[in-house]
Write a structure and sequence with these properties.
With about 300 residues, the protein is α+β, with helices and mostly antiparallel strands. It is built from 10 helices and 10 strands. It is globular.
Amino acid sequence: MKLPVLSLALGLLCAVSALRADPAPPDPAAEFARMRQLSSGLKPMTGNIVLPDNIATIAVPQNFRYLSAKDAETVLVGIWGNPKQKSLGMIVPVGFDPLARGGWAVDITYSPDGYIKDDDAAEINYAKLLDQMRTAVAEANKERVKQGYPAVELVGWASPPRYDAATHKLYWAKEVKFSGARVNTLNYNIRMLGRQGVLVLNVIGGMPQLAEIERATPAILGMVNFNPGHRYADFDSSTDKVATYGLAALVVGGIAAKAGLFKVVLAALLAAKKLVLMAAVAVSAFFKKHFKRRKAATADPAASLTPPSA
């Protein structure tokens, strides 16, 4: 299998390194060995996986694997260098290698914001919403650049929003371009509405993986479901909390949008320090650059570190 790399370039690695307060980038060979050791300890699972508090069950088929919350933290934080996440686990294709190019993974979290009404689903103008988000991203770039982060462009829908009213599952994808990056970033999102909140599935991958992710989406949608008592249909209007935002805000970014912080939402979602980043991309670029410098003096270790292109 090929390895997952988004190609956000060294600027992203610098941002990640700064957030982790590293005085200087680590030795690439030692860092790769550390990450490889972490990845070798992952314990992929199949079968029926019940998420904490019996919220939902993932029926993992043979061509996928589930990584526990602990393993997901190892991947997201220990290997990819993100800030600590509150992950419920990850869904990955069989053969997943967190250090490989061309792979992808699905991070799972839960947002207990209440029951989200979907009666406006057919009325949402997603083309207009995209224009509003583009404007917000452009304005947020001013502050991002001041803080030393690369400017971001919301290119458009990589896959327009689709809502299944029967299963109460919403999914869409945005194409994002970071300044200086050769390959655009893919934000592929799945939201599953429940009685008291939303299961948040964020697919971490690159634009080259879009077709593969699209093919896998029906399987992902089918394998994750709320358990009885937590289902959308179990909502009790006399006792249950109703979320202060709707489906459109989910696409924008529900947590901040519900507070009316539309512009802040986009800045938060697209800021390198907030977004779940494929730090392996920048790390890969770092390895490639530094190992090339050492190639003349020693046997080239980059042969084992530079996987085939996606």
